[in-house]
Amino acid sequence: MYPYPAAPLPDALMPTTEAIIDRLLIDLDDKQLGSVASRIDTLRTDLARKCLLELLRKDSAALYGDGLTDCPDPVTSIRFGTSNDDCNPVCWSDNAVAVHRAGETSVETLVDYAGTDVETPLRDYSSFTDPVDGSRLIVDLATGEFTIL
């Protein structure tokens, strides 16, 4: 045993991520590669969903305090429509409806997420879900459930 910790390897000797992955994937057959690709897609979608949910919860908690709604009741869900400008693929619209619920009543607040920290994660999520023009995305802020109708 050495009295000092080993020095880290110089960057030139460290294998790149690509080299490590190539060594892992080189012996897989087509079916196995398909399974890996599917798993990566699932993990990327889950990560995009988690990031978007976290930002929506944070933003929704601040709506009343920031004076963007007159309703002090908590936002329970956010409803997104689609956007289709003929130049880009259909995606979830930056314009959404925040639904506040208090007992049996609900109040809706229009929210524009363009230019906010929600915009990019929403676009990312669009790329994973490929929304159809006219569909709706409902995000339940309490359960974290994403529903596409």
Topology diagram in text:
Layout: H1 17-25, H2 30-62, E1 75-83, E2 91-102, E3 105-112, H3 119-129, E4 137-140, E5 146-148
Antiparallel strand pairs: 1-2, 1-4, 2-3, 4-5
> Which structural class should the secondary elements be placed in?
alpha+beta
Overall spatial form: elongated
The number of domains is 1
Straight-line N-to-C gap: 63 Å
Which radius of gyration do the C-alpha atoms yield? 22 Å
Strand order of the largest sheet: 3-2-1-4-5
Low-confidence parts, pLDDT < 50 over ≥5 residues? Answer: none
β-sheet strand percentage? 15-25%
Mean pLDDT: 87
Order of helices and strands: HHEEEHEE
Give the number of helices: 3
DSSP strand tally: 5
**Largest sheet entry:** 5 strands, antiparallel
Structure commentary:
With 149 residues, the chain is α+β, with helices and mostly antiparallel strands. It has one domain (11-148). The protein has three helices and five strands; from the N terminus they run H-H-E-E-E-H-E-E. The model has no long low-confidence stretch (mean pLDDT 87).
